[in-house]
Amino acid sequence: MIADIKAGTKETIDFDLLHAVPPQSAPDWVKQSPLADPAVPAGYVAADKHTLIHPRWPNVFTLGDAANLPTSKTGAAARKQAPVLVANLTAAMRAQPGTARYDGYTSCPLVTSRNRMLLAEFDYDLKPKPSIPFISTMKPRYDMWLLKRYGLPALYWNLMLRGRA
């Protein structure tokens, strides 16, 4: 069951897996700028969900945690958004239309026990988008926990932040 509970209220909910996420929003300077999507109180930068181009200013692009995209704000999502943004920005610099498209891919590593994790990977349509074709990442696995514990930090710090992954 998914619940949106207002602050100061109490509610009892039965669940099999609880994934609690604190409220998120854009920084105040983004919220107060004309770049922010006026339809969203969190103040994220408005963007076409496929091209990552701002709907009012075709020379403004956004991705990651600042973007008002209907997907999870994860490093995996930003990693898939970056090449789309670069391709469309490069096209704009050449006065060409941006044709690269982001499909909403995101990956949410969910630790399900002390040494088990599943990797929920999906697109805008919530269709599974597994990145490791020969194993099921949608079931809790020890090897997925090892990936979360050792592989993903190395990938993030050594490859993603340097634009190599």
Write the layout of secondary structure elements.
Layout: H1 28-31, H2 75-93, E1 106-113, E2 116-122, H3 142-159
Antiparallel strand pairs: 1-2
Give short descriptive properties of this protein:
165 residues; alpha+beta; two-stranded antiparallel ribbon; 2 strands; 9% strand
Tell me what you see in this structure.
The chain has 165 residues and is α+β, with helices and mostly antiparallel strands. 25% of the residues lie in helices and 9% in strands. The protein contains three helices and two strands, in the order ααββα. Strands 1-2 form a two-stranded antiparallel ribbon. A hairpin with a 2-residue loop joins β1 and β2. The model has no long low-confidence stretch (mean pLDDT 89).
In DSSP terms (H or I, runs of 4 or more residues), the helix count works out at 3
Beta strand count: 2
The major β-sheet equals: 2 strands, antiparallel
Q: Could you report the average pLDDT, rounded to the nearest whole number? A: 89
Quick structural summary:
With 165 residues, the chain is an alpha+beta fold. Helix content is 25%, strand content 9%. The chain contains three helices and two strands; from the N terminus they run ααββα.
